[in-house]
Design brief:
The protein is mainly α and 142 residues long. It is built from six helices and no strands. The chain is elongated.
Length: 142
């Protein structure tokens, strides 16, 4: 397979699988940490209206969704690329970080969460994924 095609598929797979992990964790979050009483989380407007009811515990799952979604997406992309594994992993991290910034703009959250989320969930996780993918390649017998 041509390297450009393979790298393109790697990026698409990373975005799709990372997004799937993110959404799966968000879908599970309400079962693991119940939302505040009276909060309607089914619409963006309902979520905006309920943000003042959220406590620190309600931000754990969104952070994990962002961090683990980015980690998986960046690892998939870096593992499948032909070369420049770290660059592709970080590219996925930037992609998801842009989504995180958009989320913060559309859905105002406490400033502490915005700082923690933007500084720890995206670029550090994509860097870690790139390191894991590169190490895996080095140890591969092929």
């Amino acid at each position: 397979m041509h390297p450009i095609l393979r790298n393109t598929i790697a990026v698409a797979a990373g975005i799709i699988l990372g997004s799937a992990v993110n959404m799966a964790i968000i879908q599970l979050s309400g079962f693991l940490i119940p939302p505040p009483e009276g909060a309607d989380l089914t619409t963006l407007e309902g979520l905006k209206d309920a943000m003042h009811l959220f406590q620190a515990q309600h931000f754990i799952m969104p952070f994990l969704a962002h961090a683990l979604g980015t980690l998986v997406g960046a690892w998939v992309a870096a593992s499948l690329t032909v070369n420049h594994k770290m660059k592709f992993a970080l590219g996925i991290g930037v992609f998801f970080m842009l989504g995180g910034i958009t989320n913060i703009v559309l859905l105002p959250s406490p400033i502490w969460f915005a700082i923690v989320d933007l500084s720890l969930a995206y670029l550090p996780m994509s860097y870690l994924a790139g390191k894991i993918a590169a190490r895996r390649k080095e140890n591969s017998p092929v």
